[in-house]
Amino acid sequence: MIEAPWNARVYRNRHGRGTRTPMFGTRLPRYRTKSGMFDDMVAAQIRRLNGAWPQMVKSVQFAVEDVPPSQPAPWEPEPNFNSQCFPASHGVPARIVLYRMPIQAVARGRVDMQLIIRDEVVSRLAELFGRRPEEIDPDWGL
């Protein structure tokens, strides 16, 4: 029985010279997207802080969003568009949300972005637990 051309499986590229393969390997830097690298940087900071303050980090949920909401929270006198924290209430754990695109817009490079992420996570943890950021991370703000 002859199949229709659109139902036939294609095992060769469109020129018929070879099999279809990825353009680049999965271990190459190009394979990771900007959002994936940002998520990895945030996870690395959370792991680092979890080593020093496990009881503090374990009780907080972390999230990454692309952009902040259009309306800032009414209780914030001066909205920060890089991150936001929500205290625990009625069985919902405390949350820290980092906004990817504003941080990427401010950062001048990969190292600068890592420092901004570190400062945002530490300052929001300090805000949630009523501590100074220097108590949580002595390198904060440097």
UniProtKB/TrEMBL annotation:
InterPro entries documented for this protein: Zincin_1 (IPR010428), Zincin_1_sf (IPR038555)
SUPFAM superfamilies per record: Metalloproteases ('zincins'), catalytic domain
Transmembrane segment boundaries: none
Protein name per Swiss-Prot or TrEMBL: Peptidase
Organism from which the protein derives: Bifidobacterium biavatii DSM 23969
Organism lineage: Bacteria, Bacillati, Actinomycetota, Actinomycetes, Bifidobacteriales
